[in-house]
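Is this the right way to post structure tokens for a design question? Let me know if I should format differently. Anyway, here goes:
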């Protein structure tokens, strides 16, 4: 794996009415044969690696705590991921060896809003996304940081990562999606143990619970997440979106309703150009060329 090659990085602006752009970011990502583009803000960096949008919370001095600028930056990145047909997958990570320590309490005390209308906490917790999002977790994912990871579809974590929802220790609940999502990710009694005690768990324990998909050595979460993103991005974009919609719309529904949702999504895919291309590519023994239609 090599550092970003600055001679192949192009900077462009996004949402300059919300957050100013800055310089090209640096970091270590696998770019051996992948052209990259980059967009930066002061608190959130976005970078394109192949068909993946890498979103980096960049406030390492406060362990990437979420303030208003972070919330708006992530919200802008979500909009970009959803609107750009060339982007297939997103990866969310943090700078400086940590993921996110949750809400910036000092910023909140100043009256800063850390929620975005229609997208919730940090511009992500309630965002109705159609494209897969992977969390690449190093260091701490605490409180709202853990909730950001839970808002993602997959989680890759370094062995030294730690997860916790400690809100009850401060007289609160994990209202950025933790109370809602954790019991849907792990068995009820195990979710309640974490939510009622506020206990911190290791990345290994999080994997045992089913929260983490893959463990990596420290420093390896982002490269591993990008490899997983590349594998996902090779598949048909309409099918990826259909998987997410089916799971979301059928969650908690009676089985007949869930199957009806599944049938509607499958029926639409059967009529798509991508399905026809997938069949042709299989018979011709070649890589499919998806059109998203």
């Amino acid at each position: 794996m090599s550092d970003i090659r600055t001679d192949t990085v192009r900077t462009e602006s996004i949402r300059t009415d919300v957050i100013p752009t800055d310089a090209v970011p640096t970091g270590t990502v696998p770019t051996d044969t992948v052209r990259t583009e980059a967009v930066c803000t002061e608190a959130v960096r976005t970078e394109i690696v192949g068909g993946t949008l890498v979103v980096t919370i960049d406030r390492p001095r406060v362990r990437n705590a979420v303030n208003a600028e972070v919330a708006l930056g992530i919200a802008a990145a979500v909009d970009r991921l959803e609107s750009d047909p060339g982007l297939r997958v997103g990866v969310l990570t943090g700078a400086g060896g940590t993921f996110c320590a949750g809400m910036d309490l000092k910023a909140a005390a100043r009256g800063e809003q850390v929620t975005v209308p229609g997208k919730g906490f940090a511009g992500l917790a309630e965002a109705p996304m159609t494209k897969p999002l992977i969390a690449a977790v190093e260091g701490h994912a605490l409180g709202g940081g853990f909730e950001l990871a839970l808002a993602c579809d997959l989680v890759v974590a370094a062995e030294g990562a730690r997860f916790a929802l400690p809100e009850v220790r401060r007289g609160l609940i994990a209202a950025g999606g933790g109370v809602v999502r954790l019991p849907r990710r792990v068995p009820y009694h195990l979710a309640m143990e974490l939510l009622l005690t506020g206990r911190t768990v290791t990345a290994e324990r999080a994997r045992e619970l089913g929260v983490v998909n893959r463990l990596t050595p420290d420093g390896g979460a982002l490269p591993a997440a990008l490899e997983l993103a590349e594998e996902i991005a090779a598949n048909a974009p309409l099918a990826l979106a259909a998987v997410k919609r089916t799971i979301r719309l059928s969650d908690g529904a009676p089985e007949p309703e869930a199957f009806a949702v599944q049938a509607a999504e499958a029926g639409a895919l059967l009529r798509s150009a991508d399905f026809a291309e997938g069949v042709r590519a299989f018979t011709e023994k070649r890589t499919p060329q998806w059109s998203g239609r």
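Format looks fine. Someone answered above. Worth noting: Residues 1-38 have pLDDT under 50 and may be disordered. Residues 68-83 form the longest helix (16 residues).
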